[in-house]
Amino acid sequence: MLIDIAEVFIKAGDGGGGRVSFRRNMKGPDGGNGGRGGDLYISTKSDLKLLNQFSTNTNFSAENGNSGGANRKTGKDGKDLEIYLPLGTCVIDKNTGKEIYDLNIVGERILLCKGGQGGLGNWEFRSAEETAPRHAEPGQKGQLKELTLSLKLIADFGFIGLPNAGKTSLLNELTGAHEKTANYSFTTLSPALGVLNHKIIADIPGLIEGASAGKGLGIDFLKHIEKVKVIVHCISCESSDLLKDYQIVRAELKKFNPKLLGKRELILLTKSDLVDKKYLKNAKSKLKVSTDEVLAVSVNDWESLEKLKLFLKSLGG
After folding, report:
1. Which domain does 26 fall in, by range?
2. pTM reported for the whole predicted model
3. Could you read off the pLDDT of 210-260 as tens digits, one per residue?
4. Cα–Cα nearest to 104, from 118, 121, 90
5. Listed range (10-14, 77-81, 125-129, 163-167) with the worst mean pLDDT
6. Is 306 helix (H, G, I), strand (E, B) or coil?
7. CB atoms within 10 A of CB 95
8. 80 and 107 housed in the same domain
9. Rounded distance, CA 237 to CA 272, Å?
10. How many domains would you assign to the chain?
11. Which CATH number goes with the domain that contains 83?
12. Could you write out the DSSP letters of every residue in 136-176?
């Protein structure tokens, strides 16, 4: 299962405290400084399942710095911590709702929380007026953040449509994926991915009327369409009103983000083996009011699948 949203608490390491120490027979201060707390970084990888790590652990902290020692010995610095996040992750401040980073480059490395400085030992406070200071500084606290991590898939093609439109079966046939299918709504509960001709296809869970307001599976999956290059709108030939099905989904896209309507779109009439050629001709005619790119396909029709593969290849994502 692909986890595409997570809430996490992250913290850089605290600085170590300074040391109060004196040489033998109180002949002067020699307390060392505390070590620096570890920094916390995030880095981007292409593994889209990296958010799954937060299903069992949502608290991450870099190492604290060690306290200073005697003989003016500085405490050891805390180790930095690097957290890997999938390409396409939006890093959002949970408290303000503001987007901090949008991770779109593999290998990108960002300092997210800076470790605290170590406190000064009593050696640093000696002076002509105070030759035996008995105080030292505590280490500074490391920065902390509460974040929402929201993954938006960066795919070449995004399969969308109402529930039970045959999207997942089609993904499996085209790419060799092994996603669950069944003859009922919402079989797909998380985005599924496959690869065809080195292009990524994302199967977006079924949308319903009201999805942009959170109905059904809601906006959690509408967000994935934002970064898809080409929308592949699947409409089942079993539908009693093809045009209405098309308009329902398009209306939800518009409500969620009007810019989505500007993306290139291919309409697929799925399960085409269940109807005759006359039906398909009329169906294509109705839907071509919106776009000239309308194809009929069935997972039980090898020839139609091959035509679709060639067409997707020609689109190039």
Report:
1. 5-151
2. 0.70
3. 544 444 444 566 777 888 889 999 999 999 999 999 998 898 888 888 998
4. 90
5. 163-167
6. helix
7. 10
8. yes
9. 6
10. 2
11. 2.70.210.12
12. -PPPPPPPEEEEEEEE----SEEEE-STTSSHHHHHHHHH-
